[in-house]
Design goal:
extended; 0% strand; 7 helices; mainly alpha
């Protein structure tokens, strides 16, 4: 077992998850593909993680121990601690320079970029789900009617269905 690759598998999963057992699919796929872990070891590690006090994400330390002994548990621990520690360092630096005009502009631009990416991604998801500008218009009209509180819900549903049929 290559310790650097082993560490990278846990680090990658930690970087791209939100904590807890969010890293489970990534670690599971990578370790099983290499034959470095079994489903039984994953089950044991998750059970130990759930029964133990503390954050639920510490199950990976048990998995590290079950798959590679003390070295595996230490590598897993380091891999899950590294991203939050980096964030703490970035946050400390940000506190020092947050009022600099260039940093404020960067953060404002980054916020706008995130909104733009979100809108594009959401539009793609909605389009693939069969939602089009036509259906969004009907939904907006239904919400508008609902906000007036003058049209009963059954009437709104009927009007939305009728609009969908007539607007083809």
């Amino acid at each position: 077992m290559n310790p650097i690759l082993y560490f990278w598998i846990f680090l990658k999963a930690s970087l791209f998850s939100t904590g807890g057992s969010g890293n489970l699919p990534s670690i599971h796929a990578d370790l099983l593909a290499r034959g470095w872990a079994s489903d039984g070891e994953f089950g044991e590690a998750l059970t130990i993680g759930q029964l133990s006090p503390g954050p639920s994400g510490l199950w990976v330390i048990s998995l590290g121990y079950l798959t590679d002994g003390l070295r595996g548990s230490l590598l897993a621990l380091l891999a899950i601690l590294l991203p939050p520690m980096l964030i703490l360092g970035v946050e400390r630096l940000y506190r020092r320079i947050q009022h600099h005009p260039a940093v404020e502009g960067f953060v404002r631009g980054l916020g706008l970029a995130v909104v733009g990416v979100f809108v594009v991604a959401m539009f793609g998801i909605l389009q693939s789900a069969g939602i089009s500008p036509r259906t969004m218009t009907i939904a907006a009209g239904a919400v508008g009617l609902a906000l007036t509180r003058r049209v009963p819900v059954i009437g709104i549903v009927a009007l939305a269905g009728l609009s969908s049929v007539l607007w083809r």
